[in-house]
Design goal:
single chain, mainly alpha, 3 helices
Length: about 90
């Protein structure tokens, strides 16, 4: 086999592996985001039941959850962008 063909196959395999790693990382971040939303939902539900909606926005754990949600959303967007680039490279 020609070295050029082997190099192309090797590069393609590395690209596929890299994209797979990004997909796993993306799934992990999406799972974290889901967990954070569930935690926030539980806190909000409790606040609604106890008529404490005004007080919950000052709750440090709620502020932390919302900050974590925003950070995770940014990570997901970055990973989706990276995956898009990876898969575009596979098609070339």
């Amino acid at each position: 086999m020609d070295k050029t063909v082997l190099n192309k196959l090797k590069n393609r395999a590395m690209g596929v592996a890299s994209a797979a790693m990004v997909r796993v990382e993306l799934a992990t971040e999406e799972s974290r985001l889901k967990t954070k939303f569930q935690s926030l939902g539980q806190k909000l539900y409790g606040a609604v039941q106890d008529d404490l909606l005004k007080a919950i926005k000052d709750d440090p754990s709620v502020v932390e959850l919302i900050g974590g949600i925003e950070e995770t959303k940014k990570k997901i967007a970055e990973l989706e962008k990276k995956l898009s680039k990876e898969t575009a490279g596979e098609e070339a």
